[in-house]
Specification:
The complex is a heterodimer of chains A (309) and B (238).
Chain A: H1 2-31, H2 44-51, H3 61-79, E1 84-86, E2 96-101, H4 110-118, E3 129-134, E4 157-162, H5 171-175, E5 181-183, E6 189-191, H6 201-205, E7 211-213, E8 228-230, E9 242-244, H7 249-252, H8 259-263, E10 269-273, H9 280-287, E11 290-291, E12 303-306
Parallel strand pairs in A: 1-8, 2-12
Antiparallel strand pairs in A: 2-10, 3-4, 5-6, 7-9, 11-12
Chain B: H1 2-29, H2 35-38, E1 76-78, H3 83-86, H4 89-93, H5 126-129, E2 138-139, E3 145-146, H6 151-156, H7 160-168, E4 174-175, E5 183-185, H8 187-190
Parallel strand pairs in B: 1-5
Antiparallel strand pairs in B: 2-3, 4-5
């Protein structure tokens, strides 16, 4: 009997200790954020709305509108910037494709800088990696993307920019356990940053190392924020979410060119509609010797590389 | 590999260009007169309109039996700013008669260098591309008058493959948007016509390493790849 008492007593003490700690934490929590309000600076309505926000694909247009309002208020609160979050739908009869002329790329990394500025990227992450390879080699095991930029192109090297290949058979989408990433009708693989649980299975599944993870709160100086955003594109993200190149949806869905194409000083980048037989990308695919990265893994990228031959 | 291919191709283009170039050189070389200015200007649609492309503006070279601009989709051209302002040749040369013969340039042009393929080797000369009289327009090898806005026609005479790729979008750069009317940057926006080769330059900063890891050594003389620096272990092979 006494044995039983002793046995019962131990978890009780543990429970008491636990409750004490909870009490302390709660007291601290109540005291500390007094300056920023009871709900971390949000209204109760926004806090509840964020908590119960659904997956983008299941939301009604009204719910999307409310979510956009919350995102805009959040950006104002965190960064003091008025942003507009667009929700442009995919254009009918359009599938986006990209081609890069590797003979023209000189490794300047202007695309990387422009991408960061356009897409509100945290300063510690980049969507585009410009790989430096020995001339005549496409051995990506030996590729170096931390090459110093004092003087490029370096003699005997060539450069291959790699970003999300917008696979037609995307392994990241299959890997996501919660359906937070999917392929849009215009072929772009997008992420619902609010629905993402940060498990990073998609990053492990991607053969191109095209996805990046917010390890901490994004490092976004207010003056660097691009206020023209898209829900599935460049809106400010949060810690613990995975993000990636989305072909600048906020630009391309209104007919503009991606930021990396605009920034490229050598004209190595060709962007367009794969379904339009008159488009430039179709000319490249039909008249140039093109290749895709890791074709053997069957991901069917909509991202080609070609040479001036 | 890439540079070798480019070099070989440019050699082929140059030797072709050399043959074509000798004809007008012989014509202007005797210094008789500027035969171009005597000819009536060829009716050429106004530049920077969609009608700029016309297949009958047929330069000497073809690709697969096609002229560079044949079957090209319509496009507009963005020319380099103040291109004609930068070449006010007519300001002096309307008054001064030039010596048309290729020679070492004297003041005030002694610091001018042509470093454009064969240009720098005495094969080309100012009047291969420039009109002698007037406000300093351009002319083709066949003495067709051109404005500075049509400079891409001059380039296409030798660089036919590039011109063909450019009109179709595989070379050069489209601006404005991916749909609708095509607006292209003219050749001379990116390539300085008298010295088209682009020099190496400084690149943007390398990407930062992930939070919590030491910053990578970006010493250019560092021979080790990134995964072998800072005592990091390479892939296990045993």
């Amino acid at each position: 009997m006494s044995d039983h008492d002793q046995h019962d007593d131990a978890p009780d003490r543990a429970r008491r200790r636990f409750l004490q700690r909870v009490g302390t934490v709660a007291a601290a929590a109540a005291a500390a954020p007094a300056s920023e309000g009871a709900w971390g600076g949000k209204t109760l309505e926004d806090a509840l709305g964020e908590f119960f926000q659904d997956n983008y694909r299941r939301m009604t247009p009204e719910e999307v509108k409310e979510a956009i309002g919350r995102i805009e208020r959040r950006a104002k609160r965190l960064y003091g910037v008025d942003i507009t979050v667009g929700n442009e739908p995919p254009l009918p009869g359009v599938v986006f494709g990209y081609a890069i002329n590797v003979s023209k790329c000189r490794g300047y990394r202007d695309c990387v800088r422009a991408c960061g500025e356009e897409n509100n990227q945290s300063l510690d992450m980049q969507y585009i990696r410009v790989l430096q390879l020995d001339q005549g080699s496409l051995n990506f095991e030996q590729a170096e993307h931390y090459y110093p930029g004092d003087q490029v192109p370096v003699e005997g090297k060539h450069y291959v920019p790699v970003q999300c290949q917008q696979c037609d058979n995307p392994p990241c989408v299959k890997a996501c356990p919660v359906g937070a990433t999917w392929k849009e009708p215009d072929g772009v693989v997008v992420v619902d940053y609010d629905w993402c649980i940060g498990c990073r299975y998609c990053m492990a599944a991607c053969p191109y190392q095209a996805r990046v993870f917010n390890w901490g709160a994004p490092d976004l100086p207010a003056e660097r924020i691009n206020p023209k955003t898209h829900y599935l594109g460049n809106r400010p993200r949060q810690a613990g979410s995975v993000e990636k190149c989305h072909f600048c949806l906020q630009r391309t869905r209104v007919g503009k060119l991606p930021a990396c194409q605009e920034a490229c000083p050598t004209g190595a980048r060709v962007f367009g509609n794969l379904l339009d037989p008159e488009s430039e990308i179709r000319y490249v695919l039909e008249h140039k010797v093109v290749f895709r990265l890791k074709e053997d893994v069957g991901t069917e990228p909509k991202f080609w590389y070609y040479r001036d031959v | 590999m890439v540079s070798l291919g480019t070099w070989l191709r440019s050699r082929a283009l140059w030797s072709g260009a050399c043959l074509v170039a000798l004809l007008p050189l012989a014509a202007v070389g005797d210094g008789a007169s500027d035969e171009v200015s005597d000819k009536p200007a060829v009716a050429r649609p106004a530049p920077r309109t969609l009608e700029t492309v016309h297949p009958e503006a047929n330069p000497a070279k073809t690709v697969d039996g096609q002229a560079p601009f044949e079957e090209a989709p319509l496009f507009r051209v963005v020319t380099r700013k103040k291109d004609s302002d930068m070449h006010p040749c007519g300001d002096c040369h309307d008054e001064t008669l030039s010596d048309f013969k290729p020679r070492d340039l004297q003041r005030p042009h002694d610091d001018f260098k042509l470093e454009h393929g064969l240009h720098g080797r005495g094969e080309f000369w100012c009047f291969t591309c420039h009109r002698v009289k007037g406000t300093g327009g351009l002319k083709t090898m066949e003495s067709e008058r051109l404005g500075f806005d049509d400079a891409y026609v001059i380039c296409s005479q030798c660089h036919a493959q590039e011109a063909r790729d450019w009109t179709h979008g595989a070379h050069g750069k489209r601006v404005g948007g991916w749909e609708g009317d095509r607006t292209l940057l003219s050749c001379t926006v990116c390539h300085f016509q008298h010295r088209p080769k682009m020099d190496p330059r400084k690149a943007e900063e390398p990407p930062p390493v992930r939070r919590g890891l030491p910053r990578q050594d970006t010493n250019p003389h560092e021979p080790l790849p990134v995964w072998e620096r800072h005592g990091a272990q390479g892939p296990v092979t045993k």
